[in-house]
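User: Show me an example of a complex going from sequences to structure tokens.

Assistant: Sure. Here are the input components:
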Amino acid sequence: MRKLHLSLLTLLLCVTGLGLAYYKVTVIGLPLTASEQALVWNIEASVSFRAKPDSSIKVTLPLPLDPPGFTILSEDFMSANYGLAIEQDENGRVALWAKRRAQGKQLLLFRAALIEVKESSAASDDKSTSKSAATTSSTPAFPVVPQYPPKLLPVIEGLLDKARQQSADTVSFSQRVIEELNSTSPTLELKTLLQQIDRPREFAKNIGWILAGARIPSQVIRGLRLEEGKEYSELESFLQVYDGTRWRTLNIRNGQEGLPENFVLWQLNSSKNFVIEGAREYSIKYSVGKTLREVIDIAEITSTQKGLHLMEFSLHSLPVHSQNVYKVLLMVPLGALMVVLMRNLVGIKTFGTFMPVLIALAFRETELLWGLILFSLIIGIGLLLRAYVEQLRLLLVPRLAAVLTMVVLLMAGTSVVMHKLGLEMGLSVALFPMVIMAMTIERMSLIWEEAGPAEAFKQVFGSLLVAVAGYLVMNIDELQYMFFVFPELLLVVLAVIILLGRYSGYRLTELWRFRALAKR
Amino acid sequence: MFKTWLNLRKTGIVGMNQRNADYISVYNRRSRFPLVDDKLQTKILAEKAGIAVPELYGVIEIEHDIANLANIIKDHEDFVIKPAHGSGGNGICVVTGQLYDRYRLSNGNLLTQDEIAYHISNILSGLYSLGGQPDQALIEYRVKFDPVFEAISYQGVPDIRTIVFKGVPITAMVRLPTRMSNGKANLHQGAVGAGVDLITGQTNSAVWQNFPVDHHPDTGAPISGVQIPHWQKLLTLAAQCHDLVDLGYLGVDIVLDRDLGPLVLELNARPGLSIQIANAKGLNKLLQAVEQLETIPAPPQERAALGQAIFHKT
């Protein structure tokens, strides 16, 4: 019964601990190691212009909205004393800047940090099309055939006829048209058409206008290719045509289907455009840069965006100095586990049960070698002074208090002397738990008297050995990171400790102790 | 190493972890521990039940009472001072005689009134007690040792440790002080442990510092073959101690007095495992044999005989 209870409990602890950690890794995307960094794209749109005197200024800038394949981590607007409003509807989002009067050069900035969402490109492509389909009406109406100017009508009709003959469906039809319009040696008629339609910002829209002649629904999407250090004066346009079930994206320069890699969709439809009023000599510039950021920070931001509140209750939500305290505290159970292992599995004797853990914590600050030297120094001198106090025949508690006082004085003295010698490590001696040191001195001197120096040294070395082992485990940065980000893993440690609590096999030292009997 | 492990398992050696997990934590109720940890309580219980113990002369409970020492010992030339909560024989002071206001100790040292008072004060402040709790000092009858162990002990107090499991004595050893153990009877302090044949009460194999020995390291006398007197009485006494404190896994320490016969010195709720080395016999099979018994007879004599039968079989 007890055994079943115990195994169920440990199983529950392990499942809870590992399950929570697994959830955090897979759903929230917390990294397993501290050094993991993710690429963050910083995109920026800047509008610079000169204000017209005596005229109010209004600037409308389309903004990206949930670009497929990316998550916006943060955005900010830099617009000194301009009124800012952000409007959003199913066609997208715009920033509206307004100011009644302004003089001289003006600069408006929009900045956003994007992170790529890890999905297979096919899936993200699917998502992009489904999203854009969702943002417009689910099945777009077939456009009416536009009234083409009589001069261009025959050219367009010829173009459409030719494409119709060479294609099988909407997409290949549109591709043919685009190829034709981009051909390196266009016919004379085509040249006149191109002169009319191949204007920098309008080309995609005009292709859509031509395709409307074949009653193909189309829309223009604009966005940026993410390339480090690039600057663009305009967004790149792509044409989307509706094939009856979904939107297909086509490159307007070669007709290839699909968006290029690292393309961030900025603007859907051309219904919302960049508009500027009351300004002259204006220019708009888009720039792209990349930086590395800790995955953990990103996970925190994205999880709150996703509406997962777990991260809000993580240790990361504490003030930084408390975080640092917990980074250490969460390692203490591991030190305790080491003590359990060393005492119950190996069978090393120590002074006090958890004294080695406290010493190990102090070692973290002093560094191992100096920690050992300082520890031995204080214990050694403390023992000498304790031997003197013994002569005075003091009662137990005053004697302990006297030893404690001497330990504090010793620590202060060591710090001062070593500081004067230029050994800054001496200062960290203050981190030794002085009460524990005093108790250690007292117990060591008792054992020395009762069981001889051999036993006393055996126990002090045992304690130091366990402390060093604890220090080595507690000082693994990876583990420290793991337990801080996934504190639920302590449940697994707890399970291990509970299991070890029922270990009734031999200790390693008992194999030695009973070795005479093993020979028979 | 793994082979050693298997060999130990086969021999039925009980390790520290097994003792704690399978026996002490199962059979020894926590609430009963104070009865054996406090030697004063044990002694009062034993006296009530008619179990022979060294006579208590007096108790010193507070610092101020130390002045009362002379009054307590005025009728006794020799006596023993021990902490009520002591462990491992620490803090025990055996006074064999008095000389010009000084006390002669068993190791030959002469202590002044002041030094004895300081020793008692140390006892009271908890120097020798488990966990440093304030303690009491017991002043009691000094056992006049039966000469049976004279040749094989060096000063101090040879005693007989018996493990009593669920009221059945299952194994015993004689603990012989050496020069190394400083008169103390604890094996880890350097005393010799001699296994005892539970049926005959004769010493056989012996262990010193975890290794088998044949002769006492100080006196050089052969250890085996010594017949312990009053053996049946002694085993019965050990079995009786179980009823006294109701601890399932109990260590009973008995001394042999020249005039008074076996006296119970102290009880132990966490008896050590060296007894296995002294007897060259693992505890596991003995313990299991007792665990498998359906009923255990009530009279201590029958339990002593039962223990001997189990010892004989395994």
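The lines above are the inputs; the final block is the predicted structure for all two components together. The domain at 55-140 of chain B is CATH 3.30.1490 (Dna Ligase; domain 1).
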